[in-house]
Design brief:
It is a single chain. With 222 residues, this protein is α+β, with helices and mostly antiparallel strands. It folds into two domains: 17-130 and 191-220, no CATH class; 137-179, no CATH class. Helix content is 52%, strand content 13%. It is built from seven helices and four strands. A four-stranded antiparallel beta sheet has the order 1-2-4-3, covered by helices on one side. A hairpin with a 5-residue loop joins strand 3 and strand 4. It starts with 16 loop residues before the first helix and ends with a strand.
Amino acid sequence: MTQATSRQSTTGFWQTDLIDLIFSPSQQQDPLQTQDADLLRQFSFVPGLKELLTLRQVHALEHATVWVLSENTRSVGDASKARREDTNLLGGMSTEQGFYLYGQVDTEDLKQAVQVALRRITSGEWNLAVHPRCGTNLSVGMLLTAGLAFGASTVLPRDPIGQMIGLGLAAATAAHITPDLGSIAQRYITTAIPFNLAVDNVQSLRDPLGRPAHFVQLRWVD
C-alpha cells in the first residue's frame, strides 16, 4: 500500500547506513527471474502460497507505478501544478488479483505508467519496488515504538518523569530508524520483483465515498 510523495532518486535508495551495516555488498544479490515460479512448483501443495507470492509482486508493481506517475507529472512543467498535487495524493492497495489506485489520474496515463513500470522494474530498477510512504513503514514504526517503549519502561525508574523520558527516547529512536528498517521489510518481505505478472485490464471506478479510483487487473504468468 502506498501514498505518493515527492520523488526521491532511486539510485542508491537502499544504500543507507543501517542497511549497509546489516547487509554487506557481498550479501546482496539480484533477484532471480524464476525464483517465485520455482518456489511455487516445488511447494504447490502449500495452501495460499500462490496468492502470497502474487501479492508480493503486485505490491512491488503498485509502488513502481506510483513512482512512474510521479515522474511523469513532474516532467511536464509548471502548467500542471494541480495535476502534480493530485498525483502526490495517490494511494494504493494491493490484492492477489491486482491493485487499486485511489486519486485523480487519467486512465490512459495509468495504462501507460503500468506498462512502463513493469518493464523498468523487471529490467533491473529494483528500487522501484520500495516506496517511502508504504504502509509497511507505518507498521514497522508502530512495532518499533511499542517495543522500544516497553523496553524503556522496564529499564528506567518507575517515576513519571523517568517513564516520560523513556517514551520520548523510544519514539525518537523509532522515528530515526523506521525508514531504513521499513525499506528492508519492503524489499525482503512485503514485495518481490514482478517477473510473473502481466497486465490484463485497467478499470476506472469509484471508491465507496464516490471518489475517483482505478483497478489494475493483473494475472500470474510462468
